[in-house]
Amino acid sequence: MRAARLPSLAFLSLFALLAPIPVPMAADAGDKGAGHGAAKESHGDAKEAHGGKEEESASGGLFNAPREVDIPVMVVPVTAEDGTILSYAYMTLQVEVIGTDVWTVRAKIPFLQDAFLKEMFSRSIATADGSGQVDVDLMRARLKARASGVLEKGTVTQIIVKQLDIGPA
Known about the structure:
three-stranded antiparallel sheet, Tetrahydropterin Synthase, Chain A, 40% helix, 5 helices, 169 residues, elongated, alpha+beta, 2 domains
């Protein structure tokens, strides 16, 4: 009996994976149907929260909300002005983007990592007091400038430090 169910379960699983996923569409101002009212209200709220601007790609998707893309963990030495290693920074970052598809950004993660590591190895990310701590605000500003060189200008809104651990040298 069980052997007869397996092909049908496999078929249903395959059907579920291949079924198209419905994409929400923007409601027209003239729609007054009961089903469209809630969708129109939530779309309007999102529009107001972002200044009423909408950006569409060639595929028709809306990318007007900021989205975060995770960058894998990076380990960077925290050095003094003379080049002595004070500590190591283990960090997990996110790049917040707007106006672009996150899959486009994810495809460029290796290039972002390379640019970030080059920036952090070229100049110290340490605070001026020599404690071996990271100057997070300065690092975020420098990394945002580097990310803007890899991605389209204006798409990177900020660099988010999800986790930052300082380890001994």
